């Protein structure tokens, strides 16, 4: 019987040792070939040992270092299966782990039987959700997540916009020309263009049509 080579990555040594001992006691075909204390160490270990599976703690040297390591391993060694280890069933972290390339996740307080079963399941491709369905779900979540991130960033910029800039921005959004806006506000067109430049700097854009496209995508001014 071919052995399943396992790497355990966790920043707490006692957890790594406990998992290694318990897995060895509950499975004849899983052998722990390495233990890592950081995401970086885990990646180096994968390069050197090419394990079958990595149990990867999500939060080690940073809150998401395990997720970063999963992404790097998935990109460089797609045949290595990564299972995310997490303390809490935090939906945000779990989805990020899946987006990075994890094939399953395990709560650290799970029974050793459940952990061993997860390792066997990912090796046998016995996932609860078929890979193609999981990918669609993950892709859908990624689109929502990215839109939420852009929405948050846009609102942060909007908080920096003063009342005059807001009114000008809304008029540009509605299709008014700079000349129209200047006429409605009883100022010179050069004044409007100057204020537009301030708006562009706050958004980090070079053209107002890019700002408008960003606002339109997120329905900022739509009722």
TrEMBL record:
Q: Does the keyword Transcription apply?
A: yes
Q: Which CDD domains match?
A: REC_NarL-like (cd17535)
| Modified-residue entries (4-aspartylphosphate), positions | 57
Q: What is this protein called?
A: Stage 0 sporulation protein A homolog
Q: What does this protein do?
A: May play the central regulatory role in sporulation. It may be an element of the effector pathway responsible for the activation of sporulation genes in response to nutritional stress. Spo0A may act in concert with spo0H (a sigma factor) to control the expression of some genes that are critical to the sporulation process.
Limits of the Response regulatory domain: 5-123
Species annotation: Hungatella hominis
Q: Which InterPro entries match?
A: CheY-like_superfamily, NreC/VraR/RcsB-like_REC, Sig_transdc_resp-reg_receiver, Tscrpt_reg_LuxR_C, WalR-like
Keyword annotations for this protein, in alphabetical order, are:
DNA-binding, Phosphoprotein, Transcription, Transcription regulation
Q: Which Gene3D superfamilies match?
A: 3.40.50.2300
Do the record's keywords include DNA-binding?
yes
Q: Report which superkingdom the organism of origin falls in.
A: Bacteria
Pfam families, alphabetically? Answer: GerE (PF00196), Response_reg (PF00072)
